[in-house]
Amino acid sequence: MGKRVLLVEDDPNLGMILQEYLQLKGGYNVTLCVDGEQALETFQKFNHYDVCILDVMMPKKDGFTLGKEIRELNDRVPIIFATAKSMLEDKIQGFNIGGDDYITKPFRIEELLLRINALLKRSNLQSEEEKLPEQYKVGSMLFDPVTQEIHNGYQALKLSAKESELLHLLCKHKNDVLSREQALVSIWGSDNYFNARSMDVYISKLRKLLKSDDSIEIINVHGRGYKLIY
Questions:
Q1: Residue 81 to residue 64: CA distance in whole angstroms
Q2: Tell me, what's the pLDDT at 175?
């Protein structure tokens, strides 16, 4: 049985196209709802979805309100906002509500499918990690986000709060791209220019902290973000 997707889209043509594509190409079991109220009722009745894709500008209940109410019912299900609202303030609102990704219309369906796949992959990895102690083996080092320390075999290096938060996010996305937008909004609260420059400085600091192990790299992924590999 494929993963279950709750798709909320008030444009009937776009909704049907997305539903058919995700079912045929992604192998997902997609439930399509045409407004926010119908979607909330469906979610409350069948609270077993693996991912929710929410339009924002919809009749009866907008997608942000719907996302907030879904998050109150379930704090783990990944939420993707798929909307024509492209302002930075809208994206910040979406992430602050608890959204995990944000894609603006018009978009390619292929990209939406890739984002769903990546989100579910991270969600599955996170579930596995949550079964383990809250520590990460980074190359030959051990990172403890609770104590904000990196142990390199010889000594424990103390990280600042932001260094630890950033490395924690990178570890959660190990070998995958951590988007600049997600990191900035999650840690700094906004992805404005000045915060972006600040994050670049913290990335440089982390590279210096990790440089004693040549197998560890934080790679710039042009136009997207950073990838921690080791």
A1: 8
A2: 86
